[in-house]
């Protein structure tokens, strides 16, 4: 797993999914948490000054545990939606996990 920074989101493949977060400390911590939660996937980051695209191929998992570890404090994942103006893919939310994914032809993630 590596974190890959791109200059343009035009370079993203169509099968990349994940959050778009407002730039700042939270975005940096989400990058670290996504990297921890997706050890078998490269994390692609596109910094557009005001917001940051954080994507992995096919499936992007973010857990509350890893985000709290990166932040160094408690954090409710629902609060992430305030700082997430957009995302790519489909999103399944749970109290302790967000999962962005693509739907396959048979409806499975």
TrEMBL record:
Top-rank lineage group of the source organism: Bacteria
Keywords annotated in UniProt: Monooxygenase, Oxidoreductase
A Pfam family annotated for this UniProt entry: MmoB_DmpM
Gene Ontology molecular function: monooxygenase activity
Database matches in InterPro entries: MOase_MmoB_DmpM (IPR003454), mOase_MmoB_DmpM_sf (IPR036889)
Family: Belongs to the TmoD/XamoD family.
Name recorded for this polypeptide: Toluene 4-monooxygenase protein D
Organism: Pseudonocardia thermophila
């Amino acid at each position: 797993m590596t974190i890959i920074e791109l200059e343009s989101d035009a370079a993203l493949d169509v099968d990349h999914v994940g959050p778009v977060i407002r730039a700042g400390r939270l975005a940096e911590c989400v990058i670290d948490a996504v990297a921890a939660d997706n050890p078998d996937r490269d994390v692609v980051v596109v910094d557009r000054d005001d917001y940051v695209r954080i994507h992995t191929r096919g499936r992007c998992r973010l857990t509350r545990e890893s985000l709290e570890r990166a932040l160094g404090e408690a954090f409710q994942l629902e609060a992430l939606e305030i700082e997430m103006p957009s995302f790519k893919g489909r999103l399944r939310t749970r109290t302790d996990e967000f999962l962005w994914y693509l739907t396959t032809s048979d409806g499975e993630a």
